[in-house]
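Repro:
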Amino acid sequence: MIAHPAIAGGRRRDSRRELPLSKKPATPAATITELVNQYHSRRPVRAWSLIITLYGDAIVPRGGSLWLGSLIDIMALFKIDAGHVRTAMSRLTADGWLSREKAGRNSYYRLTRREEGVFNAATRRIYFAHAPAFDGRLRLALLGPGVGDRPSARPALERAGFAALTATAYVAFGDASPPLPDIDGVFLVHADASDDVHALAAAAWKLAPLAAAYRAFIDRFAPLDATLDAGNAVGDADALVARVLLIHEFRRIVLRDPGLPAALLPADWPGSLARDMTARIYRRLLEASERFLDAHAQDRTGPIPGPDVGFRRRFSPS
């Protein structure tokens, strides 16, 4: 795989610099085929998870409903057969992710109301960068001896934005949101950030494995970035496949990212580079992939409607 120039040698570089003549990027079709092969190299292959990515990225903005026949055709592009698709849809329906509507012999699926709120929150995290403010102060939650059941306190602290530094000390970079419920024996302390705040943040929020995941993501999609940057045309079906795989891999990481303020992140943090690359690739694939959906995706009334008004704001540079 082509090493991404932005992280080669451990230095940040222009991720769009021209490749040497000896390393001309492969064609988009070959690069996307390799991405599909890499997806299948993981075991087990979770078709249901990829289907959820497809819905969130491409179907929800276009009315939310998709005919099972269209879904089977789309998933065949990822080398996932009809039997696995039907099994996945049964599981997603039984688990409350999707609801099914029958019309004669045809089935149509959409997200349940329960999952709509989850997807709205995930959409903001995936497609819209947000750098939280940092006032230079840390919030500490210290568990005193009066906390009888320490494991039960952890979920409440995490929901309020705290991360575990030790078994009895939790840290947050902002005021507790949502507010921390009253827990007997928990003491809240505000402290000015010290010079070793980066080490503290890395330990509390476990940034090292997250950074490794971002770097692996950059390595995986750098060849696609290079071939698109070279101006190579991509077919409509390939564009949809690449777009869905891109978001599928990116969301797996970004939804685990605590979204720390820049002041708490290391100088060589790869999350920003990964987001920039994702936005660049996504925008280049968008028109061709939308043409494929126009031609091949149907709901109960026929071709699915066009995307909603907020769709074009995804990965907006502004």
